[in-house]
Design a protein that fits this description.
Number of domains: 3
Shape: elongated
Number of helices: 16
Number of strands: 14
Strand content: 5-15%
CATH architecture of the largest domain: Orthogonal Bundle
Order of helices and strands: HHHEEHHHHEEHEHEHEEEHEHEHEHHEEH
Radius of gyration: 26 Å
Length: 436
Amino acid sequence: MASIGPHSLGLKQLKAVLLVGETGSVTRASAILSRSQSAITKAVTQVEKNLGVSLFDRTGSGMLPTAHGRILLRRLQIAAREFDRARAAYKNMVEHPDRDSNLPLFRMEVSNQRLAAFIALHECRDAKRAADSLGVTAQSIYRSLHELQEQLGVALFERTSVGILDATPFSRILLTHVKVAFAEITHAVEELDSIDDVPRGRVRIGTLPPTKTIIPKAINRVLLKHPQLQLSVRDGDFPALESALRAGDLDMIVGTRYASSDYPDVIFLPLMEAPFYVFAREGHPLAKLETVTPAQLSECTWITPPAYTPQRKWLERFLIERGRGLPPDCIDTNSFEVMSSVVTGSDRLGLAPLLELERPEVRTQVVLLPVSELIDQHDETIPGTLHVMIRAHTTLSPAAKAFYQSLMNVARETDTRQGDGVSLPRSAPARILPLR
């Protein structure tokens, strides 16, 4: 099958394929879409030509999807649902609730070029830069935007005082649904290209602490087995990565789940335990003690994960409930490299996962503090389970499945190694999550 991009497949043509597959008939699809039968036949034939596969068996009893056709139809149904969800959001947000919402955009009766201009405006926030990114003129961008806004009867962008374009609330919602729909079409192309059981395509991974030990191992392992895969890795904080996942810009996020996170559009798959420890530099005054109390922890200076993370919130609550608290000069960072460098060069304490602390370049420079009150606090442990987060209502592409399996294998091996004991020096384990 020829490898092509999803934007080479017109939405109007794909909608014709979807209706033929769902009705089993060119005639019935023609009646639903109010297009001629010849136009429907031409659309199906063009998609088959672009993909280089046969999507239907033409029989006397109708159009029967082939194995390739079933793959494409499953993804197209998900994409169509995204446009339906955009329609529902539109009905809830427009000023005139009686306005007809059965618009061409929501029926997938819109050109790819118009939606590409819409996405580019979101990313660039300037018509000239959006035009340059697509290789078209700024006038073409403005024309596409004007036509979309005229059709919807709502503004999609507003110009700010500094001259850049700011998306309206509905525009941001529409963007998410459009991008997820195109992501499904991308996965369809990759799945068709992988039908010979050789996964192909790109995997886009978002990473949160503490994954910098297992992610590189999983990448190297999957590429050793499947060198044809393309992978991209993006670091960030949870809110930004979660938004990117829901918008179809990422295939998965690997990291610690936020305790308060409850998103119906995201599935959380447990990966492994990643216990957090209080640590200090070798030779730190507290490292000489048999037991470190909450009072002594509160008197120290700290560098911890950011204030919005569940680990930091747990630590603050642990100390406050014992009449203490973190000092006001606490530094926060989402970079373990910064945290470990600050700790090893000062008397500050840190809070980090064992996965990071056991790095060879770190383990000889730090010790785990003997904080006895943190041992086996099963009823109030710091959230430390690593999860793989994926979008609900879909399935991973073959390429993403291959990486996920590699990640699971690495996590299983790492979890087994941790269960054999912690090699970092310590008087007593400052254990926040039990080692298994």
